[in-house]
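Progress note, project year one: complex with flavin-adenine dinucleotide.
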Amino acid sequence: VAGLPVPTELPPPALSFEFFPPRTEALEQQLWTCVRRLEPLAPRFVSVTYGAGGTTQERTHATVARLVRETSLTPAAHLTCVGASRGEVDDVARRYWADGVRHIVALRGDAPAGEAGYVPHPDGYAYAADLVAGLRKVGDFEISVAAYPETHPTASSAQHDLDNLKRKIDAGATRAITQYFFDTEVFLRFLDRCLAAGITVPIVPGILPVSNFNQVRKFSAMCGASVPGWMGKLFEGLDDDPDTRRMVAAALAAEQVRLLQANGVDEFHFYTLNRADLTYAIAHILGARPKVAAAL
Ligand code: FAD
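Model obtained:
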């Protein structure tokens, strides 16, 4: 019977970890405990999200700046163009450049909660592809962009969405990071479609270890990631049992990443939600081992 490969037979993959900027002192502690735990795995980069509509601009900057100052990690700053003029966005990017940050995750962002739909700022970058082109003029950044194996929820068609991804790459992005997904075949088919469209930069799967299934189900409905029925079955009856939920989550994500690895995927981006344990365990299963001592 053809099974998954013995884990140690495959070379360890390249990893990246995503954090969000903390809002409170307690969350700050949680983030830095997470950073300290994951740092020895020597990820290719770690990224810090930018709150909807740029609401975390200062906190994102402070977190990224601290990563530069106090760790051996290479940070990437998420930057969105919603609700800001080109000049304002360029200023944020220039500040990152001056701080030694050389990697931006360039995004459009979404309309603020309560507003009907996305409307570009009159003097702003309208879409992520425009932002990528603008960033190219600010500095020689490494630029990652978002990709959607199940199509962005407001795209007029899957083909338009793929064309849009191609535009972002043609504008100068060097990597795409995907929205999370749970159906591995969906991702592998998406890779084939990207290749057929002439997209040759790495398409890195975004992996979300599911520690809170109900929350993920709600969020997935908004961001267009489908949640297969069998996942509901797996988490059935565990609403009040977080310990078992986490074990199930680890098993589930380990299966997903091993299947991807067996199909030639050698780079993974983890949505850590500022908690290290699941990400660390899954990275370990993929073959990652501590390389450097935490600098903190
Ligand atoms: P775009 O690539 O600009 O595409 C947005 C939509 O517009 C798509 O449907 C596209 O097909 C369509 N489109 C593009 N160009 C045109 C055009 N010229 N005419 C008509 N339609 C067009 N959000 C945050 O607020 N902060 C974050 O830190 C953040 N990080 C993320 C990280 C990743 C890896 C991912 C996958 C998403 C992230 N998001 C974040 C969410 C993201 O901002 C939303 O998904 C947003 O709705 C789209 O952003 P985009 O960069 O993909 O937009």
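The mean pLDDT is 94.
The first strand starts at residue 14 and ends at 19.
No further modelling is planned for this target in the current period.
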